[in-house]
Automatic annotation (TrEMBL), chain B:
<protein>
    <submittedName>
        <fullName>ABC transporter permease</fullName>
    </submittedName>
</protein>
<keyword id="KW-0472">Membrane</keyword>
<feature type="transmembrane region" description="Helical">
    <location>
        <begin position="264"/>
        <end position="285"/>
    </location>
</feature>
<dbReference type="InterPro" id="IPR025966">
    <property type="entry name" value="OppC_N"/>
</dbReference>
<keyword id="KW-1003">Cell membrane</keyword>
<comment type="similarity">
    <text>Belongs to the binding-protein-dependent transport system permease family.</text>
</comment>
<dbReference type="InterPro" id="IPR050366">
    <property type="entry name" value="BP-dependent_transpt_permease"/>
</dbReference>
<feature type="transmembrane region" description="Helical">
    <location>
        <begin position="33"/>
        <end position="55"/>
    </location>
</feature>
<feature type="transmembrane region" description="Helical">
    <location>
        <begin position="218"/>
        <end position="244"/>
    </location>
</feature>
<keyword id="KW-0812">Transmembrane</keyword>
<dbReference type="Pfam" id="PF00528">
    <property type="entry name" value="BPD_transp_1"/>
</dbReference>
<dbReference type="InterPro" id="IPR035906">
    <property type="entry name" value="MetI-like_sf"/>
</dbReference>
<keyword id="KW-0813">Transport</keyword>
<dbReference type="Pfam" id="PF12911">
    <property type="entry name" value="OppC_N"/>
</dbReference>
<dbReference type="GO" id="GO:0005886">
    <property type="term" value="C:plasma membrane"/>
</dbReference>
<feature type="transmembrane region" description="Helical">
    <location>
        <begin position="101"/>
        <end position="126"/>
    </location>
</feature>
<keyword id="KW-1133">Transmembrane helix</keyword>
Amino acid sequence: MSEPLLEVDDLEKYFPVKSGIIKRTSDHVKAVDGVSFDIARGETLALIGESGSGKSTVARTIIGLTGATGGTVRFDGEDITNATDEQLARLRSRVQMVFQDPTSSLNPRRTIGKSLAVPLKARGVATSDLREHVVELLERVELNDEYWNKYPHELSGGQKQRVNIARALAVEPELLLLDEPTSALDVSVQAKIIALLEELQAEFGLTYLFITHDLSLVRNFADETAVMYLGEIQERGPTEEVFQRPRHPYSRALLSAIPVTTDEEEAYKPRHEPLRGEIPSPRDVPTGCRFHTRCPYATDACSADEPQFVAVDAGPSVRCHIYDEAYADAFDDVPEVAVAAVADETVASNTNEP
Amino acid sequence: MSAESASVLDRVVSAERRELWQRSWKRFTSRPMSVVGLGIIVAIVLLAVFAPVVAPYPEHAGKFTDFSNTLQPPSLDHPLGTDHVGRDVLSRILFGYRLSLMLVGVVLGFGVPVGVLLGLVAGYYGGWVETIIMRATDTALALPPLVMALAITSALEPTLTNAMIAIAALWWTWHARLVQSIVASERSEEYVQAAKLAGASTPHILFREILPNTLSPILVKVTLDAGFVILIGAGLSFIGVGVQPPQPGLGTMVSQGTSYLPDSWWVSVFSGLAIFVLVMGFNMLGDGLRDLFDVEVNR
Amino acid sequence: MRLDEPVAENPLLTVEDLEVGFESFDGLAEVIDGVNLSIGKGEVVTIAGETGCGKSVTMKSILRLLNQPPARVSGEITFDGTELLSLSDREFERVKGQRMSLVFQDPMSSLNPTFTIGEQLTDTAQFGGDSDTGVVEFFRRRFSGERDEAHERVLEMLREVQMPDPENIMDSYPTQLSGGMRQRALIAQALLNEPDLLIADEIGTALDVTIHDQILDLLKDLIENHDLSVLMITHNLGVARQVSDRVYVMYGGRIVETAPTDELFENPKHPYTQGLIASIPRLTGGEMATGIDGSIPEYLDPPPGCRFAPRCPYATAECEEARPEMYERGPQTGVECVLYDEAVPASEQPTVEETRSHMTRRPSKQTGGD
């Protein structure tokens, strides 16, 4: 089997907290605290998380917008952790990023054409050929050539995001990091952008790291899904597995919290258990299992020992004592993973796909 | 894409662009204050440029005396009267405007680019670069411009040139600070990061991405500064360390006229009014521009 | 058959023929174009729609939060028998203060950061609905025993909204609270004066999923316990389904469909509603969500006739000429679409699946859509 395109191994990003008059580092915000995953070429990994999960920081660290404080990132076999300027320059043509807010990603004082010309010029396209290339890029994202002379404020949210995608594609990258690319858009627009991303992936063989807080978005789109909480991955596996049999209590809670519009989906969701309490601050990470302060199944063991990230049933990997045989006695109320088995039948009879 | 369709497209788009300008113009002209300000400045600039032609007695602006005609009150011949050596006040004011505008041009022409450049560099790089530049700025800002100008012109010769140098030497600090604060916040904006990711060079990011976003505040500040500069120049001239007689500095004229108050009031009063109108003009224009840009930003 | 009567039984709030225009540099923008809705006593009604559909403007015109000019509001808004638009500002403030409450959208910016939660909420408890309080009366109340009473009421309310550690929260500033806690504080504030009508503007949009979930659960309990009538504004159809009795779907400044919640989701009729539902990704997997081609109408120059026609896969010339009527298709159910005229056979009325397949068709080059 060929090497994965992106390998992230035990990535850490700590932000120092300075206090006192002489600004000594008193504490650390552990935004990313040991994150590992691989993405194979041509596939999509969805990274799910709420605020404080660290998902955006993971992307920014991978692409070099901020440095890692620990762990490694390998792209196509090459170690790019804390890349040198020379590495970064080479990387720019192979890894790109699309940000969440379509408006702030575009310079309000420059026309779309000018903004799109930037990566083209950096790639070495001659000035005389610029217009042609820009129009071609616009067409790839289903915008016609009228847009080349417009300013960002003349475009809608969806159109701006298409421009951002076009700009990311300008250097013909292999890996695209998408940081909540549709969160700022309406549902009807969101669906179109996702459809566009899927097509582009098929056409150009792109690999995606798709970051979002909206689980339902990635159901049909991602090959693998990883759920993050407070800087760690809590569950990771093939998307279907994670959705049909969510094992980690946090994944279950996330899934059960999604407001859906059909009875079918309602039945598919795990049993609804609203979580207690607030999301802790990454500055003040709970002891033991980070999730224990809100987990409906937490026991004493959970606040004392940190769970390891282990594979379950040759399927997804989970970070939870419930799935660790060593703690089997601690839990008398193991959540019914089998509930999803019923949903399996419902799903099988309703769709044509496995 | 054929050349023909390209030009049709360009025409369509420039029609839209023209519409944008029209709307901005409409917005600007909807505020009477802005229009009046603009009108005043345009009028004064034209008068100053064409002073040799427009002034009734252009030769009165320099070394000229006519002791038979001293301190004449305003009349048809001399609409603003004559001063204590018989020169036409109106003509001198027109040439005085020339000097004022020249002062503004030199001071801002030097001070603004230097300040903007330093502010860009300080704001973008941060760290010790920013510290060095901004602490220097802070120090310079702590010195009141008028007092400093006074000190410098007193130490050197009190001439207009030296006054200009003195003021210009301090003026960059305001713009450096203004630009630095804008750039410091803009540099973490996503469009800057996106440009970095796209492979843009640092000069490109500084001058093509960030700078255009600072132009509106700079333009407003420059316009309001102009009034300030004129007042400082007039102040220096008034106390005798700026424009020297026989040159028609407006401040100098006010100063000379004070000896003849209140009987021959017209010299001081009209010179003072001339300063007032010019400064007001700049202020009103500046306010109008600021409101105009505010609206655009909040769109 | 036209839907003329207000649909709610026992209506508390009725809006009839609401029209709101905005004067701008470029002309008059006709944003709200003849909206009719009603909320019954004890009912939870949602206005659902995407950005720019006019739901916020509608809500603001009910609460007189629009500046007139540049807004121009006309129509009839009746609250428990009183015609609101004809009241003076003072009279309206009294009605609003005592009987209506608004829970704002963004808890981050709706609380004053310079006052503690306790101070702000006790102020609301003591002075809410009494904007006429004179200076003397203000000081009297502020420093009397009534203050302690109000303080107690606030504590009670904070407990009811399940605020953790309420005594401590009373002494805390909004910046010290998390998003979820601020939202609870806002809800508590809204309920302090026991309103009859609660208006909730996009609650939870700024919150994390799991926190949002908690808040919605809380809201459902509160609605029941206080017998509230609620008008909810949201763009999230899933939320509308969870909480409401009836839903109004808005598009382009008009109500395009209304129905009891179950009916709307089991049997959406208007092509826009169908397109919207088809755009929501399915948790169960299967087909990709589709999205809707095109973009919302320009209010300065809206299309004549049906405002959705430019984007509708079933539009005919008739649709572009005249605004369709609101056809009644069942109890409290109405659709503003010619396809639902009685004369049209059921076979010609599209299902969600048909609309979905129409919208999955490859879009042509964008000339102005999304």
